[in-house]
């Protein structure tokens, strides 16, 4: 092979290798970085939408049991970053030990599934959390409807609801940790009719843990 041919082959190889290197560098520094930034700034949050539990009337159509709105503080353990435990405990008015124990329970249940951290927040706690929640990655507020009874005398017949047990969660995929279920009376007997159907809304959440908008109209 002539010297000139060998030189051209070597030069061609050098050019090809250089192009591969430049292409790889462009991917790592520009495309991959842009994708990473986009992914970091547009996290999807799947929020369970709880249905209104069925109302209960007497035979004269008098309302006996109705729903009222409440909020729970939820956590997804694997999404927690730089948690200021003291500040969050102060906002929801619980002790640090209780908070740590509940977080441990949530981690044991699942690192990537939501768990209830604090139930039935008061109005003051809810308002304070709304303003500060962007500081606590991995935490969000879940709207939930709880039961109220117009006639406490008939409460033994109407029954009551309580948090679902691990046994019930395993027996029925409808339930997850923190859900409420009929424990006694009519609430228990008609549980499958009263509980309704859950839905799921999908939101885009920015890097500051704030909801930006619904993803694909929330569906």
Question: How would you summarize the topology of this molecule?
Answer:
Elements: H1 3-41, E1 43-49, E2 56-57, E3 63-75, H2 85-92, H3 96-109, E4 115-118, H4 123-132, E5 139-149, H5 155-158, E6 161-163, H6 166-171, E7 180-182, H7 185-189, H8 191-194, E8 199-205, E9 211-214
Antiparallel strand pairs: 1-8, 2-3, 3-4, 3-5, 6-7, 8-9
Record keyword descriptors for this entry:
elongated; four-stranded antiparallel β-sheet; 8 helices; alpha+beta; Penicillin-binding protein 2a (Domain 2); three-stranded antiparallel β-sheet
The average pLDDT score comes to 81
Q: For the report, how would you describe the main beta sheet?
A: 4 strands, antiparallel
Order of helices and strands: HEEEHHEHEHEHEHHEE
Which regions are unreliable across 5 or more consecutive residues at pLDDT < 50?
30-41
How many angstroms separate the termini?
66 Å
| SS-based class | alpha+beta
What's the level 1 CATH class of the largest domain? Alpha Beta
| CATH homolog superfamily of the largest domain | Penicillin-binding protein 2a (Domain 2)
Share in β-strands: 15-25%
Q: Can you tell me the CATH architecture of the largest domain?
A: Alpha-Beta Complex
Count of DSSP-assigned helices: 8
Rg (C-alpha, Å): 27 Å
Overall outline = elongated
Total of domains: 2
General description of the model:
By secondary structure, the protein is an alpha+beta fold. The chain has two domains: 1-41; 43-218, Penicillin-binding protein 2a (Domain 2) (Alpha-Beta Complex), CATH 3.90.1310. The protein is built from eight helices and nine strands. The strands form three sheets. Strands 2, 3, 4 and 5 form a four-stranded antiparallel sheet that branches. Strands 1-8-9 form a three-stranded antiparallel sheet.
